[in-house]
C-alpha cells in the first residue's frame, strides 16, 4: 500500500512496483541472498524477450497481464523502477526506497491516481524524472527502453 490504487489500466505498474520492492524489503531485513542487482537480473532477464518489440512497454505489460503471463508482466514492469532508482541515485543522490519513504509522509494520503503519484515524486526531487520515464513507457518502442541482455 505504498502507492494508491492506480486502477486496472496500471495494474502492471502496481505489480511491477511490488516485485521491485520485495527485494528492497528483503535487503533491508537482511534476508536477501546474494547481490541486489544480481537478484533483479535473475528475475528480469528471462522476460526481456517480451519487450524486444516496437510496441510500447506499457502496452506489452498490459497485454501480458490480460494473457495471464504474470511473471513476465510483473518483472518486465519492475524494470521501470530499476531504471527510476538508477536515475535517482545518479542524478539526485537518493534511492527509490528512500524517496518512497519520504513520499509516505508527505503525499501518499493525498494522491489518488498515477498522474498525481508521478507529479508528487517529481516535485519531491524538483525534476520530471518520473513523468518522463512514464511517458517513455507509454510512447516509445519497448526495444528502445529494455536492453537485449540485462545488466546493472
What do these coordinates show?
With 152 residues, the chain is an all-alpha fold. It has one domain (8-145). The protein has eight helices and no strands. The relative contact order is 0.19.
H and E string = HHHHHHHH
Number of helices: 8
Tell me about the largest β-sheet: none
Distance between the termini: 27 Å
What fraction of residues sit in β-strands? under 5%
Over the alpha carbons, how many angstroms does the gyration radius reach? 15 Å
Low-confidence stretches: none
Q: Which of globular, elongated, flat, extended, rod-shaped describes the shape?
A: globular
Share of helical residues: 55-70%
Please, what is the average pLDDT?
94
Q: From the helix content, strand content and strand pairing, which structural class follows? A: mainly alpha
Layout of helices and strands:
Blueprint: H1 11-29, H2 36-44, H3 57-66, H4 70-92, H5 96-106, H6 114-125, H7 129-139, H8 142-145
Helix pairs in contact: 1-4, 3-4, 4-7, 6-7
Short description:
The chain has about 150 residues and is mostly helical. It contains 8 helices and no strands.
Keyphrases for this structure?
single chain; 152 residues; mainly alpha; 8 helices
